[in-house]
């Protein structure tokens, strides 16, 4: 998982098995002020645990999500998340 001061770019899967590392990366990035970019272009699979972490981060109002696949957007819609991840 690639991160810098304002960017989180996970790759591969974001499932329950990667949730702890993903959460730690998000918490670290969101601890600083300003907008945080979450680039999902290299993510191949996301489960409910990954979606819940992204949705929780979204509530802070400082998350810009890029690279979201049609598959992930469709999965979120099926789960009842009708609003976009980005603020």
Provide a brief overview of the structure.
This protein is α/β, with parallel strands linked by helices and 87 residues long.
Question: Can you walk through the features of this model?
Answer:
The chain is α/β, with parallel strands linked by helices and 87 residues long. It has one domain (2-78): Transcription Regulator spoIIAA (2-Layer Sandwich). The chain has helices at 19-30, 48-58, 70-78, and strands at 2-3, 7-9, 11-14, 36-39, 42-46, 63-66. Helix 1 runs parallel beside helix 2 (48-58). The two termini are 23 Å apart.
Secondary structure elements and their pairing?
Layout: E1 2-3, E2 7-9, E3 11-14, H1 19-30, E4 36-39, E5 42-46, H2 48-58, E6 63-66, H3 70-78
Parallel strand pairs: 2-4, 3-5, 4-6
Antiparallel strand pairs: 1-2
CATH superfamily: STAS domain
Overall spatial form: globular
Helix/strand/pairing category: alpha/beta
Structurally, the number of domains stands at 1
The value of Rg in angstroms is 12 Å
Second-tier CATH architecture: 2-Layer Sandwich
Helical fraction equals: 25-40%
- CATH top level? Alpha Beta
Fraction in beta strands: 25-35%
H/E series, N to C?
A: EEEHEEHEH
Helical run tally: 3
In order across it, which strands form the biggest sheet? 1-2-4-6
> In terms of per-residue confidence, which ranges show pLDDT below 50 for 5 or more consecutive residues?
none
CATH-defined fold name:
Transcription Regulator spoIIAA
Q: How far apart lie the N and C ends? A: 23 Å
Tally of strands:
6
Largest sheet: 4 strands, mixed
Arithmetic mean of pLDDT = 87
